[in-house]
Write a structure and sequence with these properties.
alpha/beta, Rossmann fold, 2 domains, seven-stranded parallel β-sheet, six-stranded parallel β-sheet, about 15% strand, globular
Length: about 400
Amino acid sequence: MGLMSGWRGWRQFRKLPWDWRNIVIYSESGQDWHQFSGLIEQLNGPLARKVCYVTSDPADPGLERRHENYRAIWIPEGLFLTVFFQVNRSDIFVLTMMDLHNLNLKRSTYPVHYVYLFHSMGSTHMVDNEDSFDHYETLFCAGPHQVKEIRKREQLKGLPPKHLFDYGHPRLEAVIEQGRTYTAGKSLTEAATVLIAPTWGEQSIFNTCGRELIRVLLEAGYRVIMRPHYQSNRQTPDVIAATRKAFAGNDRFEYIDRMGETDSIMRSDILVSDWSAMALEYAMGLEKPVLFIDVPRRVRNPNWRELGIEPIEAVIRTRVGEVVSPDSLQDAPAAVERLLSEPERFRTKMQELREKLVFRLGHSIPDGAQEIVRLADERQAARRGRQP
């Protein structure tokens, strides 16, 4: 079934005329649709550009979109997705998939221009593989820290300079807007709600000290929402299930499956996290504080210190919250109280901080779509110049 579906999708793409392959977008999962939907609407509508959207997820919302300037194709993971990547002919290819050419999905043998959209505001050189971004021509960067890190790696490794576009972070803009319009309806006497939403992996909160942390916060009188990363449910389901079961029946404990869910983020008063880049969106977007549990860093690049740059995930911690050791979880309730004590002052601080750390707040999507058009036109002109 998968092989036949892949063949049909690949055949459908091959038959497209060049005007449908000038701008091609690839999505690994429907969870990435929010990264592309605004750009696609801008490209299809105001800019009147055709877009071919290729996804490997049969449940991708992008497959349901209908527009005269839009076509969606499903090519599931497997042989024909590999073939699609290796011999696809398009002008520009936009994606949020890291590690292009490092794993099974390679760059095309044809001259395709690859554009990577950063899906978070995190740094590029600690949590990600050392060479995760080496094989793209253009990177749409969220903030100046990413530009600094990429340029430093290029300098150290003698890599050709990429085109780095000051894009910003549409997800943050959406969170800011949601925060402005959300009304919680909470009484002044109701206990504060603590959202625990860490990253995933063996050293993350739920895999190390999650059960004890929840117990301490519940005993202090807080409402607690447990919201594990979807990868935690895939990789360590027993840990998540055991932690959830330990507090089942407590009326101040709530478990959330985070797939596509945002209400818990909005109605919480404070986030507890570890090394998740979500903390930046939460603090600067909702203007609410973060308590960090100081579990070991999540490192995929053992050589990250070569750049001599401290990752934004570490720099930001004391600017948007406080840090508590996993060996001192009894200190967490007092830290929560301090962080919630001056909400107006904290909001002002976050508004100032995001202006410094994030590009193009409020207009990333229209500017980003215009840049995609510019690159597509440039590549189209180059292709036509190569044709006899």
